Structures are given as structure tokens and as C-alpha cells.
């Protein structure tokens, strides 16, 4: 499964504009701009490249990078280039929306993988995008470009359709306020079609994204609910579109997602709230 790269995370205004003026930004904003200079295509950066991508003078970037390196947010390799440090990973593990859900989901994801030997993915919503927090894949599974931490649009992915369907009432309007990005000829770009697709997700509790990202992949996704019945994540399995396996995999995805929901509820000594057809 091949696809264009994932969407670039939203950045502070001007944080990636080479030569943008630095005046008016706080020290915290400048530090965040340095960290935001890294992405999937820029995992290792020289000091000069960091300064340029962060929109900072070289002297300012040097001072901030030194502080971030001492704290462990950045690490410097033998070539002198910088990359994200393990200290940030340690902090990220404290996020209940990411790692907490991941820990509850992993046993069920492993079971789903053993039953299907296909790509199994877990994602949460961040603004108008989905963020993948776990992925299990095999050598024989259809190739995907998804990775842990990557972002994709809500309207074109199976997990995104679930999170959009059960999101806040105004989320749909926010998504449709800008053009819906096209990946293939089958990507939903019409807001009316998207509204109908979301109504079907709420009716069935399952989202199917058929060749919307690439022409060889199809994903089946189901909601993962928190103790109060709110959708906190989405679980999906990605299979070759040509095999026609989607109907047979729906029960397995649904059962795995429900198992994760029960685990999240059990962590607080509660029973999961029954799934409702509407928001």
C-alpha cells in the first residue's frame, strides 16, 4: 500500500518559514518551534537547518538547542546533527489519551493481528487529524505508510471517519470549512457524501474506508469508548482491497474494540456505556 506522506502537524505561525521574523515570540514559543522543526521527513537536522526551519536567528537557535540538549529533549550524534531525545518519549508516555489507551488496547490488537495477519492500527483524534498511537503489521500484510505518531485526515481514513462521526457536533463543519484533501479518485471530497458516510458509521458502528488513501488498501474501523461512553480512540484493520475480506472481518474488529472499551472501563471499576447510534 503506497500513499502520499501524512499531513504535516499544525505548527505555530511562522515556525517553519525560513527567515521569518523572530520578534514577538516567547522563549517557550521559540523552544516549541525548535522541536516542531522535526517531522517524518526531517528526523535529523544540523543546527543551521534547525534554525532555518524554526524561523530563528542562528545564535538564538544555538542557545535554545543547547538548553534542550542538556535537558534531554534533543540529542546530538557523532556527525553533529540533532534528533529528538528519549526524554521527550518519557514525557509522552504520561499522556492518558495516547499511551494509556495503547496499553489497554495492545493485547486485543495482538489477538486481532493473530486472527487476520493484517495491519492493525489504533488512533486518537487531535484537532482535525488522527494520530496513530500503535501499529502492528506483518511481512505479508498490505504495505502501509502509517507509523506511530503519523497524522492523517479525518475524512479519508477508517479510523478518522469513526472519530469524526462520534466527535463534537461542530467538528464536521470545521472539517468541511476547508477543501477535503484528495488522495485517490475514490476519496470523499463532497461534504454531502461525507455527511452520509458519517451517518452510516453511526448507524452500524463501523467505518469502511475503501481505497480512499491508496487504490490497494481498505480499512475497517470501530470506535473505542471510555467509561462514560465517549469515543476516545478508533481501532482498524487494513486489508488488500481486491480480496473482498471486509464483511468477514467486521465482527473481529467490533469484538476487539469492545474488549478495549471494557478494559478502559474496568480500570475505573465501571461497566462500559452501551453504544448509541447517534452522537
Automatic annotation (TrEMBL):
- List each copy of the HTH iclR-type domain by range: 25-86
Which Pfam family is one of this chain's hits? Answer: HTH_IclR
Task: Cite a single GO MF annotation.
Answer: DNA-binding transcription factor activity
Q: Where is the composition biased (Pro residues)?
A: 1-12
PROSITE patterns in alphabetical order: HTH_ICLR (PS51077), ICLR_ED (PS51078)
List where this protein forms a coiled coil: none
Would the keyword Transcription turn up in this protein's UniProt record?
A: yes
Which SMART domains does the entry mention? Answer: HTH_ICLR
> Where is the stretch described as Disordered?
1-25
What range(s) does the IclR-ED domain occupy? 87-266
Q: Which GO terms describe its biological process?
A: glycerol metabolic process; negative regulation of DNA-templated transcription
Keywords, A to Z? Activator, DNA-binding, Glycerol metabolism, Transcription, Transcription regulation
Q: What is the documented function of this protein?
A: May be an activator protein for the gylABX operon.
- The name this protein carries in UniProt is Glycerol operon regulatory protein
Native species: Streptomyces melanosporofaciens
